[in-house]
Amino acid sequence: MPPVNPHRHQILSAYKYLLYLGRDYPHSKGYPWFREKCYNAFARNRAETDVGKIEEGLKRAEYVIKEIEALYYLKKYRTIKKAYESV
Amino acid sequence: MFRPTLLRAGRLLATKVAPVAPLRAAVRVSAPVVSKPFAVSAIRFYSADAGALSKMEVESRVLDLLKGFDKVADSSKLNGTAHFANDLGLDSLDTVEIVMAIEEEFNIEIPDKDADSIHSVDQAVNYVLAQPDAH
């Protein structure tokens, strides 16, 4: 077992939340595509030990989460707008 | 509370329907009023035990779930005691996904702290069995 990473919980919960968000990701290949990308993004930094870099990565994860949330808001807004315009 | 409401509804219905078909309306309306209070079997106990899950059932459902998971490297090693990392070649990120799938399968919520302690099939099975609201 590698030494316990103090950020482990944060990282795993960010991953979990991203996966939840990815279920409705508007992409032709859908959720499996998103999962693959998300997994690779996390796995790429698997060996990272520098605390500063890890925190940077967490900030990036948070940024991506916010981006996806914003994307969904926008998608919802556009859908509703379209629905009202067609009336 | 319920009986007066029924009675009132019945009276209302009777006055409305009466001019058209007095006899049939009367019969129909009087039925619920005369009928006995609810039979015992009709009472639902919402907090009753929904039937505890058996260990075998939980294990087979967890294994089915893992069988459908495309990252399991060697499905021949799938058994009741398989370790996610050592036997199935899964890492901590995959374990998160498995925990998510288990949450959905059994309709429970597994807090991060507990999710971190699940490393093998039997640990997952025991955790689910310990949850009273798993089904």
UniProtKB/TrEMBL annotation, chain A:
One of its GO terms (biological process) is respiratory electron transport chain. One of its GO terms (cellular component) is mitochondrion. Transmembrane segments: none annotated. Residues 10-63 form the Complex 1 LYR protein domain. Pfam families: Complex1_LYR (PF05347). Coiled coil: none annotated. It comes from the Eukaryota. PANTHER family: ELECTRON TRANSFER FLAVOPROTEIN REGULATORY FACTOR 1, GROWTH HORMONE-INDUCIBLE SOLUBLE PROTEIN-RELATED. Belongs to the complex I LYR family. This is Putative growth hormone-inducible soluble protein. It comes from Ascobolus immersus RN42.
UniProtKB/TrEMBL annotation, chain B:
Gene3D superfamilies: ACP-like. Belongs to the acyl carrier protein (ACP) family. Coiled coil: none annotated. It comes from Ascobolus immersus RN42. This is Acyl carrier protein. Pathway: Lipid metabolism; fatty acid biosynthesis. Residues 56-132 form the Carrier domain. PROSITE patterns: CARRIER, PHOSPHOPANTETHEINE. The keyword Electron transport applies. The lineage of its organism: Eukaryota, Fungi, Dikarya, Ascomycota, Pezizomycotina. It comes from the Eukaryota.
